[in-house]
Design goal:
The chain is built from 2 helices and no strands.
Length: about 80
């Protein structure tokens, strides 16, 4: 199974955002910039929604300094968010 960002649906995270015990990876999503274990405090689900709204309203800007994948399709990627629930 792919490691999917529950905020933006990016499906190429190196680690699962949270392990089976609920501990965060502290990985930063290269697409939306959300850091698991930091930006999700104190309420994870609410943080995901708020960050997603802010990211979308800001134009879905690629966060990482590494090049954005040429085949990135934000509309398709956002469909992955449902798969994380």
């Amino acid at each position: 199974m792919k490691n999917i960002c529950p905020v933006c649906g990016y499906d190429k995270l190196v680690f699962k955002p949270y392990n089976e015990n609920g501990y965060a990876s502290f990985e930063i999503c290269p697409c939306c910039g959300f850091e698991f274990g930091y930006d999700d405090y104190p309420e994870k689900e609410k943080a995901f929604i708020e960050w997603r709204k802010k990211w979308i309203s800001g134009g879905c800007t690629w966060f990482s300094r590494n090049p954005k994948p040429h085949d990135l399709n934000i509309q398709e990627q956002l469909k992955n968010v449902q798969k994380t629930s």
